[in-house]
Structures are given as structure tokens and as C-alpha cells.
Amino acid sequence: MDKVIYLDNAATTKTRPEVVEAMLPYFTEYYGNPSSVYEFSTPVKKAVAQAREILAASIGAKPNEIYFTAGGSEGDNWAIKATADAYQNKGKHIITSRVEHHAVLHTCQYLEQHGFEVTYLDVDEHGVVKLEDLKAAIRPDTILITIMFANNEIGTIQPVKEIGQIAREHGILFHTDAVQAYGHVPVNVDEYCIDMLSTSGHKINGPKGIGFLYIRTGVKIRSFVHGGAQERKRRAGTENVPGIVGYGEAAKLAMATMEERAAKESSLRDYLMERIMKEVPYTRINGDCKMRLPNNANFAFQFIEGESLLIMLDGKGICGSSGSACTSGSLDPSHVLLAIGLPHEIAHGSLRLTLSEENTREEMDYVVENIKAIVQRLRDMSPLYEDFVKNQAKQ
Predict the structure, then answer these.
(1) Is 225 helix (H, G, I), strand (E, B) or coil?
(2) Using CA atoms, how far apart are residues 25 and 19, in angstroms rounded to an integer?
(3) Angle ∠(383,387,389) on CA atoms, nearest 5
(4) How far apart are alpha carbons 195 and 189 in whole angstroms?
(5) How far apart are CA 285 and CA 299, in angstroms?
(6) What pLDDT does 387 receive?
(7) I need a labelling partner for 337 at 20 to 30 A (CA). Which of 62, 152, 193, 228 fits?
(8) pLDDT of 330
(9) Residue 323: pLDDT band by 50, 70, 90 thresholds?
(10) What is the pLDDT of residue 26?
(11) For the stretch 124-138, what's the b/e string if a residue is b when 16 or more beta carbons lie within 10 angstroms of its beta carbon?
């Protein structure tokens, strides 16, 4: 197969042609600053307002509850740090989980250095937060629960509705990092009792460098970026108009195709996982097999190093990852895989493949055949595998 087979859509996606087309006029034709008062900026203001309406409707929110950001990491930082600042007189306790994205974990660690206490909830072997543990962790001074909607590495979808209800019953704000879930599975902020929600455009075939933070009316958090009066005085900086327009178009397309796209991706994913599990011994699937994102497949192969597998797959034109793109330079095993109970030596042999609707069954067959061959080649070079085979022969 001559072309590249791209299976790292959790890291980023290809910008759709319709999105690029929608963005182009706002670079060269309608390039006015939307904060300006003259007529030339009127169509720019309208385009920003229209995108805000599309994005709000996609999660069941009001347009004035959508605040544009530079992406998911900014949204996570804003929600958590601004809540800590605004509600610290009520309490300094925050609850999160051990499998969050580092944009959440590192922000919580930052707050711990500034007098806040953080409870990191354990998860089960599939990466799911235990609701009883969440209830037990709540204290009178708990001001925020921040639990992701779906995990970026293993694809597990959390019981978000139940978490939101627990938070609401105790008068605690609930923030969810929905970067991986938004546009892939239905999200409704009222139904799930969500107070703040972070997203990122480049995960749904939109442009990079744009996202939004949903902030429910009545949540009294302040600005994160200070300066001008943009975003109703809550997020300073000239609006990224082409990015905002592109995100609106990407969201419109994602919502219109979600059901059909999810069905195709989950069918291909299941086919891929079934073949891998049947044909590659000493392999496990990471994450919940049912409550997971439709395009996510995550494997752990014993007796190999995931980085070596990735490099050799790349040589065959296959793009995957061993975990979050944000930690790809790290030699440490995935904190998510360790949190679900995998020992270091198995966690190091992980492979995340995240599909798109453009992938085909023919590509999955090609991927499986190459994984089989590469894993066996790597195991043949492994002293651990050699010892394992010898021990098996003696039994």
C-alpha cells in the first residue's frame, strides 16, 4: 500500500475542504477586527456570532455561554484556575481523576502548590471513575469536580451524567474536558448537569488553535487572559476569526454526520480489534469495550516496546501513537495505563489507533498484517519473550 494510513485522529484530524473554504474569505476579504465600530467589520461580527450560535446549539447551550479559546488546554486551565480563584472563600478542595489529560493534571498540581487540596480518584481496570469513590471524596470545602468526558488514550467514556448529578446535588461546580468526545458522541450540558466544558476544533476536522469553553450562566469565574474587552470581558485578545468560522463549519458538519460516522468507525474499530485479539497472542485491549469512543482502539502487546512498534509501523506508512500526543516525547509509560493497573513492562508496549470515516477495511487488513509481523519480529529480539517461551515449553 503506497499511501499513508493515518490512524492518529485523537492527536489531530485533517481539516475538511468545506472548512478551509469557509475560512478563506476571512483572511483576505473580510479581514476587519470584529471589535471595530465601522461598517467594514459588520460581516465579520456576524460570522463570529453565527459560529457561536452553531457551537452553542451543538451542546444545548446559549450563545452567550460560549467563550472562544485557543484550544482544549486553555479551556481546561481557565475552568480550573478561575474556579479556584473565584470560589476559594468557599473552599480549596478539588476532585479529579488519575486518568485526566495533563492539561487538567498539571493545572491541579499547580494549584496544590498554591494552597489547594486535590483528590485524585482511582479508576477501575477499564478506566472508569467509581461513583461511590466520588461521593466519598466530597467534602464541605469541595468547590470543583473536573472529570473528562472520554479518555484521550483508551477511549473510555465516563458516566458523565451521573457525575454531573452528584455535583449538582452537592452544590459543586462540574467541569468536563470534552476535547475527545465533542463531535463524536452526543453532548448536552443541561442533560448532564455540566457547568463548564472544554473543546478543541482540530479534533473534529476543524482548524488548530481554536476551541471554546462553555460556562453556564451564573458560574462566577473571571478572566483568564487579561487585556481588552473581547468575549464579554472574559477573554482578552483579538478574536481568531478564520478559526472561529472554521470551527463553526466543522461543528455543523460533525453534528450532521455524527450518527453515520460513528457507526462506520465503530464497525471498523471492532473489526480491527477482533482481528488483533484473535491473531496476535499475549495482547490485551485497554479501555472499556462498550463504553468507548467509536474510533478508538488501544492495545497492549506484551514483550515489546511501543516506541519501536511505532517506528516500524511508520516505515510501512502507518501513523499511530503510544498514548497522548502531548506526551509523545516522554520515555515514561502512560499514566493512564498505569492507573488502570498495567505493570510498567506491559504499559510500555501500548499502541493507540484512532480511526476516521475515511479509513477502509482494506486498510485495517493491511494494518493487522503489519502489526502481526512487526510484533513477532520485536518479540524474537526480546530476552523476556525468549525466557517466557522456554518456561511455557517446560510446563
Answers:
(1) coil
(2) 11
(3) 115
(4) 7
(5) 5
(6) 86
(7) 193
(8) 57
(9) low
(10) 98
(11) eebbbbeeeebeeeb
> Residue 192: CB partners within 8 Å, gap ≥ 6?
160, 161, 164, 176
Convert 294-363 into a string of H (helix), E (strand) and C (coil). Answer: CCEEEEEECCCCHHHHHHHHHHCCEECECCCHHHCCCCCCCHHHHHCCCCHHHHCCEEEEECCCCCCHHH
Sheet with 93-97: strands ordered across = 66-69, 211-215, 196-198, 173-177, 142-146, 93-97, 117-121
Condensed to tens digits (0 to 9), the pLDDT of residues 226-284 reads 999 999 999 999 999 999 999 999 999 999 999 999 999 999 999 999 999 999 999 99
Quick one: pLDDT at residue 388? Answer: 87
pTM: 0.96
First to last CA, the chain: 42
184-212 pLDDT, tens digit each: 999 999 999 999 999 999 999 999 999 99
Query: What residues are paired with 283 via a beta bridge?
Result: 301
Q: Which residues are known to be catalytic?
A: 326
pLDDT for res 393? 80
Distance CA 332, CA 334 (A): 6
Residue type, 221: I
Q: How many residues does the chain have?
A: 395
Contact 176, 159 (CB under 8 A): no
Alpha carbon distances (Å) from 60 to 187, 220, 261: 8, 20, 21
